[in-house]
Amino acid sequence: MTMPSHVRLVEVGPRDGLQNESTTLSKDVRVELIRRLMDCGLTHIEAGSFVHPQWVPQMAGTDAVLAELPLDGDTHFPVLVPNQNGLEKALAAGVKEIAIFAAASETFSQKNINCSIAESIRRFMPVVEQAHRHGLKVRGYVSCVMGCPYEGAIAITAVVNVVRQLVDLGCYEISLGDTIGTGSPLMTQRIIESLANDLEINRLAVHFHDTYGQALANIYAALQLGVSVIDSSVAGLGGCPYAHGAGGNVASEDVVHLLNGLGIAHGVNLDKLVDTGRYICAQLDRPVMSRVNLAMA
Ligand code: HMG
Ligand code: MG
Q1: What is the pLDDT of residues 37-84, one digit of tens each?
Q2: With 252 labelled, which of 14, 164, 176, 237 sits at a CA distance of 20 to 30 A?
Q3: Whose C-alpha lies nearest to ligand 1, atom 13?
Q4: How far does the centroid of ligand 1 lie from the alpha carbon of residue 134, in Å?
Q5: Using one digit for the tens of pLDDT, what is the confidence trace for 145-188?
């Protein structure tokens, strides 16, 4: 398999990037962040989530954020939906795409969405059916594919099982979440090769957190196997409130720089992305975590 000539970046900053920050941003700043990301050329921007506001208060008001966005335009604004309740809110907000999220670890599933893996799949069944009836696209996430904060190592067979179930439910794409950043290039290769046995490579996306600084190496391994969809977060913001100690997502600026070095097209303006990273970190009163952003200062 050769490397892709074009990569689609899925910017998760406004969701994964902000969901774990101690500062809860106003609707206006969340909207401004998304507008700036659109101006960078990003076409897929995760705009928020319809989860319980007591579980993740930072994502409360996602409906108000969506109300300010051009949902009928060309940019995709997926939102996270954990259950029927979340889907109803997403439909009321007029979204065109949702993302459901499961895990390859039983304990993480319990901590994150308060149910077992099997129960989560049962819950998602009517959610996906109804979403499709309304013409929505459904993306699927699998967390902890390369390790769990509670259970440690996770068997590849557990990952393959959950991915298969999300594909069977009708997810058009599955994003493989290295939730705590314990993945390696070899693990990345083994997981993707196992999945590619009976799934087209263009149905897979990779979602690395950069806790151990391995995300770019892992992305390079995924690219070599033909993966062409990469999740990333501006300025390297990110983390999951139910995965303590996990680092931020791989920084979008760093991924764009990597792709530039490889001659892979992506359609994103790096200078504007750097400015956007600085803007959002100033709003959060925290340092930028992207090496490329810092180097371009
Ligand atoms: P639960 O307590 O089991 O829910 O939480 P329930 O169905 O028993 O209902 C309890 C109450 O919650 C009820 O209200 C429901 O109406 C309400 P009451 O009758 O008591 O007044 N409720 C809701 N309210 C708002 N929105 C909803 C909703 N559902 C029920 N959707 C639940 C289950 C899934 C809601 C909860 O566990 C939750 O919100 N979890 C969210 C966790 C989360 O957002 N984690 C971060 C995202 S995942 C991630 O970051 C990983 C990823 O980036 C990939 C990677 O890196 O690995 C994607
Ligand atoms: Mg994540």
Answers
A1: 999 999 999 999 999 999 999 999 999 999 999 999 999 999 999 999
A2: 164
A3: 52
A4: 22
A5: 999 999 999 999 999 999 999 999 999 999 999 999 999 999 99
Please give the domain boundaries of the chain with CATH numbers for all domains: 8-295 (3.20.20.70)
At 185, which amino acid appears? P
- Determine the residue of 85, 110, 179, 250 to mutate for testing ligand 1's pocket, defined as the one with the most ligand atoms within 8 A of the Cβ atom: 85
pTM: predicted TM-score of the whole model, two decimal places: 0.98
Ligand 1 binding pocket includes 81 (Cβ within 6 Å): no
